Amino acid sequence: MSENFERHAYDILIIGSGGAGLRAAVAAAEGGAKVAVLGKSLLGKAHTVMAEGGVAASLGNVDPADGWETHFYDTMRSGHFINNYKMVEVFAKEAPDRVLELEQWGAVFDRTPEGRIMQRPFGAHTFRRLAHVGDRTGMEIIRTMEQKILTVNVDVFQEITATKLFIDNGRVAGTVAYYREDGRFALFTAKAVVIATGGWGKAYKVTSNSWESTGDGAALAFRAGAELVDMEMVQFHPTGMVWPPGVRGLLVTEGVRGEGGLLRNSEGERFMEKYDPQRMELSSRDVVARSIYKEVQAGRGTPHGGAWLDITHKGPEYIKRKLPGMYQQFMALADVDITKTKFEVGPTIHYTMGGIKVDALTCATNVPGLFAAGECAGGLHGANRLGGNSLADILVFGKRAGDGALEFIQGHEGTPKVEEAEVQAEIERVLQPVGQESGENPYALHEQLQEIMANHAGISRNGPELEQGLQKMLELKERAKSMSAPGSRTFNPGWHSVHDVRNMITLCEAIIRGAIERKESRGAQWRLDHPDELEEYGKINFVHKMEDGEVKTYTSPVAEMTAELQELFQLGAAPGIAKSGKKE
Amino acid sequence: MAQSAETIHGSKSKSGAAWWVEPYLTVLALGLFGVYSLWLVFFQHTGQFQNYLSPFFSPTEDWGIKVLPALWVLWAPLLFRATCYYYRKEIYRGFFHDPMACGVPESRRKFYFGETRFPFIWTNLHRWFWYIALVVLVFLWIDAVKAFIFPVAGGGSTFGVGLGSLIMLVNVSLLTMYSLSCHAFRHLVGGGSQKFSCADGSPTTRYKLWNTVSRWNEKHGLFAWVSMFSVWFTDVYIRLLIYGVIHPVRFF
Amino acid sequence: MAEEITLSVFRGDRSGGREQEYKIPAVPGMVVLDALHYIQAHQAPDLAVRWNCKAAHCGSCSAEINGSAKLLCKTRVDDYTDEVIHVRPMHTFPVIKDLVTDVSWNYEKLRQIPAFQPAIKAPFTLHQRDVDRIQEFRKCIECFLCQNICHVLRDHSAKDAYWGPRMMIRMAELQMHPLDTADRIDLLKGSAGIGYCNITKCCTVVCPQGINITDNGIIPLKERVADKYFDPLGGLVRKMHK
Question: Which chain A residues have a beta carbon less than 8 Å from that of B201?
Fold first, then answer.
């Protein structure tokens, strides 16, 4: 049986239509390349829309002492120094330009009294740094990018799922994808491919992530030979909703704390005084999340197992203006008026710091022609991501990946080829579960996967539990080979789920393997059996490779910062503060 | 796809009443007001009772144009209201079922041109009728002032307050608020400008005006109804005085 | 708690379909989307529903619940006590399958709107009061519920003549941007067909973001059209003013 499929040929193919993918597409198209963007959702619906608090960039509009050095310093410190410092450097330097560029394209940020872009404080940022639009900054950015993409010469394919990357002579050659609408197939050949498919927070049950965050691109790249790095680093956001059950995990923006919200335990104690007396509620996310977790474990949790967050002292008018989305969210979904009463929050999976290992300047992977940007790439955030850095990440490295791909196709002659037989074999594999009545239920497997991750590789981890988790994950991997999707090819969510689950299993195995190997506590990785941060582990990243279908884990040295950059950490305080002589 | 019975849309309004209640009430209210107005035009020739003048008959000056007295006045506010953004909603819903309520299926008429053709393209002239209505409003304020100046037996006049004076004052105030909360006015006064800040960062005068009118504009629908009923009520009160059904009440 | 909810969900595709009943256990705080997910996981794995964030940010899960145009993720099951919850796809757009409709027409129209054309280069000096108006419009999540409920599109099938409330709001946000220099008035009066809107306000009623589409967006645009086409006097005054 051979299946008909569409054929499309592009210079640069971008998989993922979130902020990073669209920014890469703009860069590539402005460079004159023939570009296509594939997204598994509609345009403008990607997970970027969920980012609330703001985009971090040292514009210095509110705190003039801020500068790229301070942003660099904050990011390295909260990443516990296993970040790729070169990435952090270009990131901190270029973020302001990327934000201003958005303004040029029509984004409308909140304003300072002087009429400049307003910036708000956020956890572990030394200065007020997050350019924002109320509590819907991600929405503003994805909309701006969507509107920009509609004006440049880029073909956008919506609701299409890529299932495999093809390699020709070691170089990436394209992908096969199916339209979710009717299940017909298309082959996209390209001279370069950019992966920008976001994270895999859906591997956990209590998550702030949308359904799309299943790590498709990272898994595709991994199977095609790309390396993954820092996979053990999965961020818990300290404040997700905990009640009612239907919305458990739904994000409560850090903006609530940025605007002055206070955390208390069931005894009314402002417990962050114990864990981080200097930064209090605005400590880094790993610290705040662990603190809440510890309070709950110690029996000082709220009725549904969280902590109280209280912003009522700011007054209804202020809250409704600065946090309108939060106000509505709690009113509609939990019958709670946050202008009048405190509310329950607890840790929720939020972000995956690890991902495809890339070159800091070009976002190139180890597979020639393959690039990655945004949450699916690793290295920028190290062991913990700062709030606001993800939106800046997708802009800075989205552009760099687009530029990198452009440079690559200019420097490499010819178009790689995809064999017809390879395409047919993949289509056959993808179609196999459709219409099957008997077999594993992908929804059930997804639930079990989430259970394994929550119980064995959650906020607190230890060796034996991780080992058990790995065994369970490997069993799941076997069972997942016989998933079924009753029904037709026409918009069949069960069938879509089959691919999601397969991709998440691949990545979760790497998460657990990384967590086993990193026998220390650092950032998001909290090992009860190894509670201290160890110097020797600060010098290495764990890198995973797929070899003959098996996940292999290696170590790779963390690149040493230049002497100039190292000096920034010898000042005794964050750069801007040390210079201006202000006390932290 | 055919609409089955259970998919009747917008089955309940905000108040919980059935969706058809509001459009029918609109038709009833506007219909009765229309009939009453016609009755005035054709069968009534004055609205004057002592120093009280019915808003339907103001101004009394006819500048030599001889038409029925009420008609002389009525067309202006009528066109102002007929082209009003608020009334348009109610009229299209109530009289034309375009649509009757949100999601309620309409008959699939082939010809729907909205406000792109005659007659409804005329609604674009709303601002012109607003100007004219403003002129009428000036006369109504003069009438309202006159309503506080009572003739004295044997000549001369004196300040006084009667029930009619208060009714006329309230009426003209409501009409003023209706006129000043108008969408076209909101646009003309400042909404049409692109920038609201001066070079030094302070708000422009037009911004301040726009901001104030915007707040009134939120209540435009309310002003539309209460001012219509107040006009009606004022005329009824004065007409009952004219017919001697009731007697004037004078506070001092 | 053994409380049971009954949902009647449209199942079908381009060729037609009918509602089918499902009974599921209630969970506190459950929204209709949760209920549909339960059905997917336990009873009908191929039940098609479009959703992304489940937090009313993305505007994917638009549908009609007991006759009202709503987001599935924001509509709580306990809003409907003792009644069957009927869930149908948006009426105005062609059904692809079950609750998923083909909304591509909206993206075609979005593409036809002249983009933001600032006169100067960022960083801009703009005050909050200058942007308050357009920030309201930029809250739009493109759920297209307004397009769905707009009777011009819904009942008169006038998609060629009128682009619908979403596009009006998009143009309002651009026309009212203090630094934009493009002119969309001819487009508004012409092919975008603003005259087809008879301001019956259903778009405003259904907007899950609470955007005052009619009063703050469409009517001011209609007035701008009137400025140019129906007010020669005002036009003259404005010309002299410049």
Answer: 113-115
